Structure formats: structure tokens, C-alpha cells
Amino acid sequence: MKLKSHRAPLYEALLAYRDSRQRSFHVPGHKNGQVYRALLQKEENAYADGQAAKHNESHLGKEPLEQSQLHIVEGEQLAAGERQESLQDNTLREEKDQEEQSQPNIVPTRAFLEMMRLDVTEISGTDDLHHPEGVIMEAQQLAADCYGAEESFFLVGGSTAGNLSLLLTVCDEPGSIVLVQRNVHKSVIHGLMLAGAKAVFLEPWVDPTSGLAVMPSVKTVQAAVQAYPEAKGLLVTLPNYYGMGADLTPIARICHEAGMPLLVDEAHGAHYGQHPELPASALSCGADGVVQSTHKMLSAFTMGAMLHVQGTRINRSLLRQRLAMVQSSSPSYPVMASLDLARRLLHVQGAQTFTAGLAAVSIFKRGLAELPRFRLLQPAALLQQELSAEVEPADQTAHASAAQPEQMHGQSAAELGHAAAGYTAQDPFKAVIYDGLGILSGYGLQQQLEARGCIPEMSDEQYVVLLFSLGSTEEDAQHVLLALQDISSAFAVEGDLLSPEESGEHMRGEKHYISTWNNFQEKATYYSEPIPFSLQPIREEHTIVIPINECAGRRSAEMVIPYPPGIPLVYPGEHISPTILARIQLLRDEGAKFHGVTDASLQTMKVMKNE
Ligand SMILES: Cc1ncc(COP(=O)(O)O)c(C=O)c1O
């Protein structure tokens, strides 16, 4: 069958259903919005009657007196003090009257009612997500074609549903060992719990310049795969929330040589590979199963996501069964149709889909370059390239020394060389900015931006992530630039930009030292022991709180998450090695904050009682 990329079969089926005006004797109970349309009709009739009555009265010369006029007439007969009290009484009375008289508005807007016409269920012609044979099958085939998969599955529960079902597929028996990047979304942890799997956690690679964690390095993957050849697969997250990443191809190769599938949580990269300026997609790098939140960086409704698979390493019939387990048997058709439409937009327009969005990004970046106060996170190589491109040829020698890595965020050449290995790609749509003066934290900058009508995607202690997309406009870029300009003036510092010491740039280094894993990778193992996950909660009576310096060798009963970067150092059930313990204590003493622990001061920890 020839695929017709300009068609949106599922969306079209919904329109056809709406236009057929068939009578519904099936769910949903709102009957395509009929329940509200009947009320709306009643309201409109009442309004029309009221208007007609008003018209008649005015024609008879009896203009009805407004409630407020009545109060003024009464008030005029009272002394000034009494009038005040009377006005208050009247206001209260008015409010009470209004409460009793006015009907709360219980009818949704017409736009919402129009949407309800498309909210159908599995009936003749609309297919079945869990046994697709008609329009859903066609829509999914078109999606596979568009994203370069062998088979694509629509998800109505976000990437969450994709991660759960992938893990439940590869971990096909209790106690299955699976290699997992340590810093993952909670849906991955929940998948491990549901599957009763044992996770070998791989340390993420940490960019020394920013202190932000990306996926594990090739070296780490190699070591873990060699140590656990029986593992059922490797799961990594790429890109991270900040849009940072690196080439997945060597990691896919290592997995495949060991006969393992590579699963990629590409929740933030549904647009990858679709434009020359965007990083390569996980599928094109060889991943076997890829989860994408189409609602995050493309144009689907919230909860709309896709799972793409290729090759034979993932058992597809088991995957279908797992998808049916974790997804509703009444999936939302508007969400699925929005996936069909998001795919069609991309399929028909190709790379051009991103032209306007990328233009907005480029306006923003050019404008930001004129506001040296605010800086942009970029891979070191790209930063160097841009710095070199900025100077006149005659100045190049001088500039080359000016752009010495040592002077970029106080990082050594060796560190930046290392940086090039794990952070080589940045999603251009994620503009990660920070205050170069170190005055505003990421949270503070977010607050200031919000006060000026710009709502960022997220912030941490240092950075703010501004998420652009194919839907962003030049006006968006201009607006945020104006906001930043205004913030810059409102939080100005006398004189020029401060020296690194004054500006807190050196603090960035220090903060990163405590919040990242810079020395950690050299000293410690790259991967954990297998940590068992299950649905059984840890029972309080099996735990004990002890002084932290007695914790080495014990199994933790809580998660220890230094923040930032928010990577769990220890999962419940994991042995606390002396190295990890030293790391926790160091971070604590340096002032890091911790999530997940019972005692935030980390003088004590909750551990499992000795068996
Ligand atoms: C890395 C990552 N994976 C998975 C998810 C879950 O995606 P969804 O919200 O589409 O279920 C998120 C959500 O933010 C995420 O950041």
C-alpha cells in the first residue's frame, strides 16, 4: 500500500464522524457534547426572551430600574455615617442576591464544545488502538515512515507509557538485569518497579563546564556491558532536559555487539533528525526502541507521544501486550488525532517545518549576544567555533589567545577536551541561559522573566531553560530579549562586567565541584551493583536511622539526591559504599541540598536493618 503523507487518516475519520451526524447510542456519555449543547440552547432562549421583554418595556416607557440605582435612591435619605454602613450592607446584600439569583455558568465555551464533537471512542470506522486494522494502523504506519522507524505506536499516556512498556518488554522475567543511566525520569524507575527488575545504574557523563549530567560515556557503557553480558538491554536518556547530548552511534554498536537492545528515552527529542540544524535522532543512530513526547517539542496535544521500534531485538508481540497493560482501553481520540496531525505537518513540510522557529531562535541568540550579562550554554567546541568566527582575520591570533579555554568559565584545556566527548550536540530550540554576573540564580531569573510575561520551561540554581519550538515567533524572541534587557537594568551593577571573582563565575566552578561528579568518575566505579526493584514498599520496621558515618556497607532505605544536578546518588536497596558515603559527606559539607532523604542535614540516614 502506498503511503499518502499528506493525509491524516485518523484525524479525517474524526471529522467524517462529526459530519455524519449519526445518533450516538454509545459512550462517551457527553454524546459529542450534546449534554452541554442542550443547556446552551436553554440559556440562549432565556437570553432572547429577556431581550424581548426589555424591548417591550422600553417601548411602553417603563425603563426597569437597575439594582445599583435603587441603592443610591435609598442611600440618599441617610446621614453620611449611616450611608457608609448602609452602602456596606447593600454591597453584602447585593452579593448575596447575586449568589442566590445568578446561575453559575455550567456550559463550556463553543470552542470546547466543538472539540467534544471529535471526542469519540472505538466504533465502526475509528479503529482500535490495541488492535489497529484501520485508520489507527494507517496513521501509525505514516508515523513510522516519517520518523524512520519500522513500526510506531501511538501513546496516549505520554512518554511515561512508552518507558513503562519498553521496560516491561525487555525485562521479561522477575529479576531481569537491565543497564540504566542513573539519572532517569521517574517513569523509568516505575518501570523497573513494575517489572521487578534489577538495575545496574550507569554514571552519567558530566559536562565539566556546566556541571550538568548527560548520558553515560562510551567507556562507561563498555565497562557495564562487559560486566553484565546477561543484561536484557541498556536504557539511556537523550537529550537531557537542557537539550544536551552526544552521538549515540558508538553506544548502539556496543549494545548490539553484546546482543542487547538499546532503549532511548528521547522524550525531549521528538524533532531530532528532522532538520539539518537538529541533532541526529536516536533511531538513525541505531537505537532499537525509542520513546518520544510528541507533545513536548512537536505539535501534539499534551500526553501525545510515540514509541518507535526497529530491528528484531525487541519482542514486538510482547510489547503490544505491555502497551495494552499500561494504556487505557479507551484512549483519547483527540490526543491520537493530534499525533496524526503533528506527523502530517512534518511529513508534508519536511525541514521547512522548523524554519520560522529556528529564525526566532536565531533572533534571540543574536539579541542575547548584545546583552553580555546573560550567557548561553553551548558545547565547548561550538562555543570556540563561534568565538573564532566573531573576530576579523587580522585579529585572529589575538582572539585565539583571548578564547583560550582556560579563560572560558575557568576550565582547563584538558577539561574542555574531555567536554567535547560527552557534550557535542545542543538542541537549538533549548536556549539555556544564565546570569553571567552571578547575581540572579536560575530561579531568580525565572521569577523576573515571569514578572515580565515570559514563562520559561524550567530553571535550576543556575540556569533557565527557554524552550523555543516550531511554533515560536520573532515576537516571542523580541519579547524575551526586552525582558532580559529590563532585568539587566533592574539588577545593574556599577561599572562594566565584573571580574570572574567578583561576578561569581569562579563560584560556578566551585558550585559545580560540589554539585557534579567531576572527580567521581576517575575514582569510583562507573556502574553500580544490580539493585533490585519491586512494588513492595519498604516497611518502616525493616529500617533504622543511624549516624551517617556508620552507613558504609549498609543498604540504603531512601533515595539520596543532591540537588543540583538532581541525580540520585543512592537508590533504596543500594549498598552504600565507602566511596559513595565520602561523596555524600563531601557534598553535605560543601552545602549541597538533598532531596529524598529523611534527615535533610544528612547527619543521619535511614538504612535497612541488618538481615
Ligand atoms: C526524560 C523524560 N522522560 C520521560 C518523561 C515523561 O514524559 P511524559 O510527560 O510525556 O509522560 C519526561 C517528562 O518530563 C522526561 O523529562
From TrEMBL:
Domain Orn/Lys/Arg decarboxylase C-terminal: 540-597
Keyword entries, A-Z: Decarboxylase, Lyase, Pyridoxal phosphate
Domain Orn/Lys/Arg decarboxylases family 1 pyridoxal-P attachment site: 115-475
Domain of life of the organism encoding this protein: Bacteria
Pfam families linked to this entry: OKR_DC_1, OKR_DC_1_C
InterPro entries in UniProt: Orn/Lys/Arg_deCO2ase_major_dom, Orn_Lys_Arg_decarboxylase-I, Prn/Lys/Arg_de-COase_C, Prn/Lys/Arg_de-COase_C_sf, PyrdxlP-dep_Trfase, PyrdxlP-dep_Trfase_major
Known cofactor(s): pyridoxal 5'-phosphate
SUPFAM superfamilies assigned to the protein according to its UniProt record, in alphabetical order: Ornithine decarboxylase C-terminal domain (SSF55904), PLP-dependent transferases (SSF53383)
Homology family: Belongs to the Orn/Lys/Arg decarboxylase class-I family.
Protein name as catalogued: Arginine/lysine/ornithine decarboxylase
Organism: Paenibacillus tundrae
Lineage, top ranks: Bacteria, Bacillati, Bacillota, Bacilli, Bacillales
